[in-house]
Amino acid sequence: MSELSLFPDIDEKKVCALVVKELKIYKALKVRQQNKMELEKNGVSENIFPKLLEKDKENQLKVLHMERALNKSLDSTERQIIEMKYLSPERQNDINIYMELGLQKTPYYEKKKAAIFQIASSLGMI
């Protein structure tokens, strides 16, 4: 008897790598967005650094979509795991995260995997 799955024939490692890559880009784009707002607040209309690509609209939408995926599709524990693991300034290892959250090892990894698949699904990656 074959086991039913929500996402059959999907390479979990590829999904994880893609989501982690997008989370890192999101982290940088959030900083970029804050810098842009700071420039506007101080009356500077041009970028103060050289700009090679004009992707402001796409980047703005990426931030908006990622925020929606994080805030609307994840439960609070899943969101905490993703924020601590991939969005905090310091890189944290899994053991420290599940200890800090008071989770056992297996439920932690199940929550982490579910969160990654939820993000991938929310963003239309899978």
TrEMBL record:
Name of the featured protein: ArpU family transcriptional regulator
InterPro entries (UniProt xref): ArpU-like
Matching NCBIfam families: phage_arpU
